[in-house]
Design goal:
The chain has 328 residues and is an alpha/beta fold. The protein folds into two domains: 2-115 and 294-310, Nucleotidyltransferase, domain 5, CATH 3.30.420.40; 126-288, 2-Layer Sandwich (Nucleotidyltransferase, domain 5), CATH 3.30.420. It is built from ten helices and ten strands. Strand 6 (129-134) and strand 7 form a beta hairpin. Helix 5 runs parallel beside helix 7. The model has no long low-confidence stretch (mean pLDDT 97). Bound molecules: 5'-O-[(R)-(carboxyoxy)(hydroxy)phosphoryl]adenosine and zinc ion.
Length: 328
């Protein structure tokens, strides 16, 4: 089954072509330069930029995949969550192609896409497993019992993990997007400042990062000469400890021995290292998607669409964008 997938939920335009599980091409047009001078994503500019590049990206993606448009069996696009103007570009484009070619269409939940990113590299993962999904808008722990049977057992009570990275990066004067920049800065610092550990109670599976953000803010105000590298390293260490401890606690409480970590923040090398050490200590299996499949991309949307198509879960062309779509 050939799938052409589109991801346009936020600020990067992704187009991928898959032949069943195999990714034939996975192209991403970054909008970083457009939004950087505003310090964050400007929704209207994001939507316009998607519109300008999507057709060209499809041509390139098909060319790289050595595939003709009439060979595509299924068109897939993200339906939500995300910025409505951005979502509508990929969604309308995919639906238009479906209508013109009389093929099938699958609308994909972006969060389900993040979950399926791990299967692109590790198709052998067995259910049940625990997933930590950490992106710019979400921080959730899920118990996955099967493809369609999953429950949320932990979530953030305020900021998402990626959002915290972005906000602290901004406070440190780093450029957008903040997460990778903060990681870079932290790599040359020492985690020498003891910021408070949020919700450290061993029975709570929820996260809370806004208090940590305030502590960093006050610390910077009261210690203007502190090395920014050390502030970044100290903040990163607390947030990573919280993410890793809660996730492995969830695995223990649910009596599950496999842990999966996905989403943009999962590309953070310090998080990966800390989680690996924890998995070895607790004798659990741990999987991350390769870094390029952690941050937003269309291959993960195609992979989730493949699962849906295999189960006959095609979507109607009346399917609309859902900006606040959840997973459960
Ligand atoms: O999954 P994603 O690409 O988009 C959303 O669905 O939100 O995640 C983007 C988030 C941003 O907040 C970004 O700063 C964060 O992931 N991020 C990182 C790293 N790379 C991306 N955070 C920490 N360390 C990184 N290396
Ligand atoms: Zn995402």
């Amino acid at each position: 089954m050939i799938i052409a997938a589109f991801e346009s939920s936020c600020d990067d335009t992704g187009v991928a072509v898959l032949d069943d599980e195999r990714v034939l091409s996975n192209i991403l047009a970054s909008q970083t330069d457009i939004h950087a001078r505003f310090g964050g994503v400007v929704p209207e500019l994001a939507a316009r930029s998607h519109l300008e590049s999507i057709s060209f990206l499809l041509d390139r993606s098909l060319e790289e995949a050595d595939c003709k448009i009439d060979q595509v069996d299924v068109f897939a696009a993200t339906v939500g969550p995300g910025l409505v103007g951005s979502l509508l570009v990929g969604l309308s484009f995919a639906k238009g192609l479906t209508l013109a070619s009389r093929k099938r269409f699958v609308g994909v939940n972006h969060l389900l896409g993040h979950l399926h990113a791990v299967f692109l590299a590790f198709p052998q993962i067995q259910y049940p497993f625990i997933v930590l999904l950490v992106s710019g808008g979400h921080s959730e722990i899920l118990l996955m019992k099967s493809w369609s049977n999953f429950s949320r057992i932990g979530r953030t009570r305020d900021d998402a993990a990626g959002e915290s990275f972005d906000k602290i990066a901004r406070m440190l004067g780093l450029s957008y997007p903040g997460g990778p920049e903060l990681e870079k800065l932290a790599s040359s610092g020492q985690a020498s400042i003891s910021f408070p550990r949020p919700l450290s109670d061993k029975t709570i599976l929820d996260f809370s990062f806004s208090g940590l953000k305030t502590s960093v803010l006050y610390y910077m105000r009261d210690n203007p000469h502190e090395k920014k590298e050390d502030i970044a390293a100290s903040f990163q260490s607390v947030i990573i400890d919280s993410l890793v401890e809660k996730t492995f606690l969830a695995a223990k409480l649910c009596e599950v021995s496999t842990v999966v970590i996905v989403g943009g923040v999962a590309s953070n090398a310090a998080l990966r290292e800390r989680a690996r050490a924890c998995a070895i200590e607790k004798r659990m299996e741990l999987f991350f998607p390769p870094a390029e499949y952690c941050t937003d991309n269309a291959a993960m949307i195609g992979r989730a669409a493949l699962e849906m198509a295999r189960r006959g879960a095609y979507s109607d062309l009346s399917e609309n964008a859902v900006p606040f779509l959840g997973l459960v």
